[in-house]
Amino acid sequence: MSYQPSAEDSDAAIRGARSLFPNEKLISSARSPGSAAIGGAGEPAAQNDGDSLAAAIRCLLRKDSAELAESQVQLLVGRVVDAMQEGLLICDERGIIVYVNERLCQMLGGSREEFLNRSVTEHFDGMYARLMEARERDERACHFAAEWRKTTGVACKFKVTAELMDTADGTHVGWYGVLRDFTGRSQAEAALRRSESEARSLSTQLLAAQDEERQRIARELEISVGEALGGVTFGLEACVELINQGEQDAAASLALLSITKIQSALEDVRHISMSLHPSTLDDLGVLATIGWLAREFKGSYRQLNLETSIDVCEQEIPVSAKTAIYRIIQEALNNVLMHAQARNVSLTLRDHGGHCELIIQDDGIGFAPVQVVAVADGGGVGVASMRERAAATGGCFTLDTEVGRGTTIRVAWPSRFSNSVAPASAHKRQPDNGL
Q1: Fewer CB near the last or first residue (10 Å), C or N of the chain?
Q2: Please, which pLDDT band fits residue 287 given cuts at 50, 70 and 90?
Q3: Please, how many CA atoms are within 13 Å of residue 56, restricted to the half-sphere of its CB?
Q4: Residue (of 20, 168, 9) closest to 83 by Cα position
Q5: Which of 138, 135, 131 shows the shortest CA–CA distance to 178?
């Protein structure tokens, strides 16, 4: 004998459905089983949507196909639940899925036919068991997180609310589950945590690097400028004494020596100033500054062969990127000196596909890319600072390296004229290897 719910059964089903949609007016009080059937001959003309939805859920649990066809169920119930942002499934007392909304199908990448009339354990393993455990604790509902797979095999994370629908005497007539997909949010939160961790680590490393830079500058000032000015002071004091003694020639020779020391100190100050922020960057532009840097590098490190190629004009380079370009070149060349063990390094700055592209390539020993993510483990900040400078100025930073095969750094910024016509004065420069 098939199960026929009483008025209490139907009321329990409607209460369960109403708990799903506490703000929906469509779910009105349940009609008794003796009410006019939907679509029946005795159907009142003025039957409202709330009564229709109530009768639909009653028939859904009763499986009375003669009273309500599946298409009518989908039309009446689906009108509300398909608009939900959450996935919804309704099961009978045996755990057989009798309804799923469109959102659930989208979440799991399947059709209704793949879920309906199947055991809930086929797709949602553990849900029914958790609900029964809650029932043993005299709880009608349970809330938990679960991971289930789409029909494509991709794992997704869900937050789940499941609730029993019982009669007044405790008879189990069905239950429902609401699923919220938080896979994207979970991934975004994990990415945010990683980003925050990397930012904290980078900030710590940058502060340490800043302190080291200050110490280096202090040492340079003390050793070069400090010693030079100390020598000049003693020299001038000796000049005064020689003049008082009437030894003019000796005083003049000592004064000339002091002038030489002053000139040397001024040169040291200029060098320190240029290393901090080249005045040519503001006065002459980034191309002239790159030329100065290349000449200084070639003069100071003759063991390395540096080739430069400039195929872009000053006007095409984004103003906001000019300082970043110089700093990235400076940092990259420093990395080559400190770590690469290279013999040759090339520096290219060009207009390429509407972008200003910087390429720095060496034939050194390279390194494993996984080492780049070791910033938080006490690694250097060279690559991290270059990446940050590029990102902060709208550039795209890529690193291509492999142990034993050298390293290539590429950074591309949108050209100032990528979306417009460049002025006539912004003509291309030919590749220049004579900087």
Answers
A1: N
A2: very high
A3: 27
A4: 20
A5: 131
Exposure on the CB side of residue 34, measured as CA atoms within 13 A = 0
- Provide the pLDDT for residue 71: 56
Q: Cα(180)–Cα(18) distance, rounded to whole angstroms? A: 19
Which bin fits 117, alpha (ψ -120 to 50), beta or left (φ > 0)?
left
| Residue 383 and residue 376 in contact, taking contact as beta carbons nearer than 8 Å | no
Q: Return the exposure string of 199-222: e unless at least 16 CB atoms fall within 10 Å of the residue's CB, then b.
A: eebbeebeeebeeeeeeeeeebbe
344-352/305-311 β-pairing = parallel
> Domain map of the chain by residue range?
7-181, 280-435
User: Fold for domain 280-435?
Assistant: Heat Shock Protein 90 (3.30.565)
Helix ranges (H only) for 284-321 are: 286-300
CATH topology for 7-181 is Beta-Lactamase (3.30.450)
407: Cα separation from own chain's centroid: 25
**Counting runs of H as helices and runs of E as strands, what totals does the chain give?**
12, 10
Q: Are 147 and 157 in contact (CB under 8 A)?
A: yes
For residue 365, pLDDT beyond 80 = yes
Residues facing 408 on adjacent strands: 361, 400
**Sheet of 97-100, strands arranged across:** 97-100, 87-92, 172-181, 155-166, 141-149
351 exposed, middle or buried (CB, 10 Å; 0-12, 13-18, 19+)? buried
Give the whole-angstrom CA distance, residue 144 versus residue 126.
10
What would the two tokens of residue 106 be? Answer: 């989208």
Q: What is the pTM of this model?
A: 0.46
Cβ distance 293 to 331 under 8 Å?
no
* Number of other residues whose CB lies within 10 A of the CB of residue 31: 19
The DSSP secondary-structure symbol of 178 reads E
- Contacts of 189 by beta carbon, 8 Å cutoff, 6+ apart: none
Burial class (CB in 10 A: 0-12, 13-18, 19+), 145: exposed
Tokens describing residue 205: 């490393």
Backbone angles phi, psi at 415, to 5 degrees: -65, 150
pLDDT in tens, 173-202: 788 888 888 776 666 777 777 777 777 776
Asked if 103 and 88 count as a contact pair (C-beta separation under 8 A), the reply is yes
pLDDT band for position 148 (cuts 50, 70, 90): confident
Asked whether 316 and 351 are in contact (CB, 8 A), the reply is: yes
